[in-house]
Amino acid sequence: QVQLVESGGGLVQAGGSLRLSCAAAGSIFRIDNMGWHRQAPGKQRELVAAISSGGITNYVDAVKGRFTISRDNAKNTVYLQMNSLNPEDTAVYYCNADISYSMTRRGSNWGSGTQVTVSP
Q1: What residues contact residue 10 under an 8 Å CB cut-off, 6+ apart?
Q2: Cα separation, 114 vs 67, whole angstroms
Q3: What is the per-residue DSSP string for 98-114?
Q4: What is the pLDDT of residues 53-89, one digit of tens each?
Q5: How far apart are CA 80 and CA 64, in angstroms?
Q6: Which of 33, 67, 79, 88 has the smallest number of Cβ neighbours within 10 A?
Q7: Quick one: which of 79, 71, 82 has its CA closest to 32?
Q8: How many other C-beta atoms are found inside a 10 Å radius of the C-beta of residue 30?
């Protein structure tokens, strides 16, 4: 069994910064893509940023130039540095990881989410 544990959310004023962390723990053979998604009230969950095992990154247009995703493979951890936050970034942020549990078993895993609230 694998768990993804997020931390770093909170309340910040517009223009401020937050850094989210997500650590994977449990029966892990290999972690492939990792990413951050968000879901605002009344909206569908959307991919914010993703990073491959080799460090290739991908961002939704709304956060390009403001957010940076990174990972520490030795710690099975992915980070999201969020700068120049604005109220439209308010959402629950979810960590996601594609994990191989063994040579033959793999699955997509989700964290429980961390709230990010940006005040005007």
Answers
A1: 18, 115, 116, 117
A2: 16
A3: EEESSSS-EEEEE---E
A4: 999 999 999 999 999 999 999 999 999 999 999 999 9
A5: 12
A6: 88
A7: 71
A8: 13
Backbone angles phi, psi at 8, to 5 degrees: 105, -5
Six-digit token string for 96: 């996601």
pLDDT score of 113 more than 90: yes
Q: Residues 106, 28, 2, 71: is their CA dihedral positive or negative?
A: negative
CA angle, 25 then 100 then 80, to 5°: 55
The length of the chain is 120
Q: What DSSP state is assigned to residue 59?
A: E
Residue matched to tokens 């069994």 = 1
Q: Which two tokens stand for residue 107?
A: 């699955």
The per-residue pLDDT for range 21-51, each reduced to its tens digit, is 999 999 999 999 999 999 999 999 999 999 9
pLDDT of residue 1: 86
In the chain, the amino acid numbered 36 is W
